[in-house]
Amino acid sequence: MTMTTPPYASDALAEGTVDVVVIGGGAAGLNGALILARSRRSVVVIDSGSPRNAPAEAMHGFIVFDGTPPSEILRRGREQVRQYGGRVVFGEVVSAESAAPSADGDLRFTVTLADGRSVTARRVLVATGLTDVLPEVPGLAEHWGHSVVNCPYCHGWEVRDEPIGILATGPASIGHALLFRQLTEDLTYFTHGTDLDQDSRARFAARGIRVIDTPVTEVVNDTGGALAGVRLADGQVVARRVLAVAASLQARTQGLEGLGLPVQDLPNMGRGFASGIAGATEVPGVWVAGNATDLVAQVGPSAAAGALAGVEINKMLAIADTDAALQGSPR
Fold first, then answer.
1. How many helices (H) and strands (E) does the chain have?
2. In 144-197, where does DSSP find H-type helix?
3. Are residues 58 and 151 in contact, defined by beta-carbon separation less than 8 angstroms?
């Protein structure tokens, strides 16, 4: 599921070599860029304009900004990065790879955009986020971010007390159901071809969660286009106002293959980039932050991860600058 944000003025792509290219203009990328720009680092953010939370009307669970539209948070983030000299460039990265090091051995990377432009950087922060892969049920995707939700912490309050259906995708949906049961007394679990053991069935029964094993064939709307329920394989329509889906979470890796970043499969969740402390990766000079590596991070933790990565990148650049000064090499 991808949606684009409203267009905005793009900065010119920097010439020469910059300190850091940040690939991804969401909370993680912008906060990392903010830390770096405030440290007087030359930084360019490449933003494809398709944040994961674009369909949502508001972002929740982040103190002070709770209830703020995602687009407004990003607008203000871009403005603040620019305030300190950072650049935000609207574009799609098609390749990112190591380049020949500088004369004194400092790392270099080349990032190329879909329109053919490119920029050279000393370090790279990957903050591309992820894509939610929904079950292929007709009518489901059109309600994503509104009546079809994923995170009980992001949008659970907004759907409280509604008739909610859990459209199961695997074992993760069992825990998902228990979390949404906290939000409503009218909860139905559609196994949709997944296994549900007897112990879980007993636990659901104890909490008053109805279980339906007949597969779901489509989402049904009312005359106004709002979600009204689901149709089962036997033709029965089960009325629901909200569906909760534990979507498969897949880090956005397109165009980054040349960096050789390791990825990891997380059982019952999806796939993301592997990273260590402060977003460090096995590839020297490349960090990763936000949902691209922490698949379940909300906006607040993603922004914090970007800041931590920015701090670490600045530290490593300071060490490299000092090494160069000892060798008498200009920076």
1. 6, 19
2. 152-155, 172-181
3. no
Which residue in 138, 63, 92 sits closest to 252, CA to CA? Answer: 92
Q: What pTM value is reported for the model?
A: 0.93
pLDDT tens, the chain, 331 aa long? 555 666 678 999 988 999 999 999 999 999 999 999 999 999 999 999 888 888 888 889 888 999 999 999 999 999 999 999 999 999 999 999 999 999 889 999 999 999 999 999 999 999 999 999 999 999 999 999 899 999 999 999 999 999 999 999 999 999 999 999 999 999 999 999 999 999 999 999 999 999 999 999 999 999 999 999 999 999 999 999 999 999 999 999 999 999 999 999 988 889 999 999 999 999 999 999 999 999 999 999 999 999 999 999 999 999 999 999 998 876 5
| Cβ contacts of 72-80, under 8 Å, gap ≥ 24 | 73/27, 73/299, 74/5, 74/25, 74/26, 74/27, 74/30, 75/8, 77/27, 77/30, 77/31, 77/34, 78/8, 78/25, 78/30, 78/45, 78/47, 80/30, 80/34
Locate 144 and state its tokens: 């994503």
What tokens does 110 get?
């080349």
Tokens of 6: 């409203």
With tokens 């460090």, the residue in question is 280
The residue assigned the tokens 């096995």 is 282
Q: Residue 107: what residue type?
A: L
Count how many residues are written for the chain.
Answer: 331
Are 121 and 19 in contact by the 8 Å Cβ rule? The answer is yes
